[in-house]
Amino acid sequence: MLLEGKNAVVYGGAGPVGRAVARAFAREGARVFLAGRTLATLDEVAQEIADAGGAAETAQVDALDEPAVDAHADGVAGEAGGIDVSFNAIGHGDVHGLPLLELPFEDFARPITTAMRAQFLTTRAAARHMTRQGSGVIMAITATTARLSIPNVGGTGVTFDAIESLCRQWACELGRYGVRVVWLQTTGLPEAIADTVQPAYGTGSGDGMTKAELIAWLRRSTMLDRLASLAEVGNMAAFIASDQAGAVTGAAANLTCGQAPSR
């Protein structure tokens, strides 16, 4: 197994991405520590993992609460003997469907400030332990919104761009301690898209799209004519977190199915 004997923390462990990543980590032998704001849903994921023969523990942690994040990381490291993997999959409170001309600043800025605070705090908390042990992997998830010009997505593109920039800085500062920092980059994830899609998402037309229409629109921009699945995100996360990917840091793992914006 790729992660046998590893301790992995997953923030936002009850969300679609966090759940998929946590299950993949556990399947590959990691002891998974699920963190999030709603304990009941975290416990559901932990039970799924246990039913599949894995090991998972839960804790109510707000990733924006600095003392809580630090205390949780210290507790995990103290109990398990260290932290080998930290994956941040929390939601950012994005608002889609309005042009920037009509978008309140608070709605634009919320995902940026949320992501930056959560990514910084969770990374720092884990890195303090990883640097002492001389190894570790810190991971985030972004999307190609970070490098494309897509209308009516509010602060989402800036948010993902900021996450990637922050990850690069952490990578260059932590590399000498043996700590790697990698982010998974996707297009859209069909299983994580809400059934009711915000009006005008990505089209600039002012018309709403159904979930099926949005998925078809995203698929047309990919070379494989499909989108990555949550299972594929989990599989890639497990591989990147493993020693098999030991030379990869400061970079994206591309799960965009070959997105080609000019198509």
Classification by helices and strands = alpha/beta
Per CATH, the superfamily is NAD(P)-binding Rossmann-like Domain
How confident is the prediction overall: mean pLDDT? 90
Q: How much strand?
A: 15-25%
- Reading the helices and strands in chain order gives EHEHEHEHEHEHHE
Radius of gyration from the alpha-carbon trace, in angstroms: 18 Å
Report on this model:
There is one protein chain. The protein is α/β, with parallel strands linked by helices and 263 residues long. It has a single domain (7-190, 229-254), classed as NAD(P)-binding Rossmann-like Domain (Rossmann fold), CATH 3.40.50.720. The protein is 41% helix and 16% strand. It has seven helices and seven strands. It has helices at residues 16-27, 39-51, 66-80, 105-133, 156-174, 211-219, 230-241; strands spanning 7-11, 31-36, 55-60, 85-88, 136-143, 179-186, 251-255. The chain has a seven-stranded parallel beta sheet, with helices on both faces. Strand 2, helix 2 (39-51) and strand 3 (55-60) form a beta-alpha-beta unit. It is globular and about 50 Å long. The protein starts with 6 loop residues before the first strand and ends in an 8-residue tail after the last strand.
Task: Describe the structure concisely.
The protein is α/β, with parallel strands linked by helices and 263 residues long.
Helices and strands in order, then pairings?
Elements: E1 7-11, H1 16-27, E2 31-36, H2 39-51, E3 55-60, H3 66-80, E4 85-88, H4 105-133, E5 136-143, H5 156-174, E6 179-186, H6 211-219, H7 230-241, E7 251-255
Parallel strand pairs: 1-2, 1-4, 2-3, 4-5, 5-6, 6-7
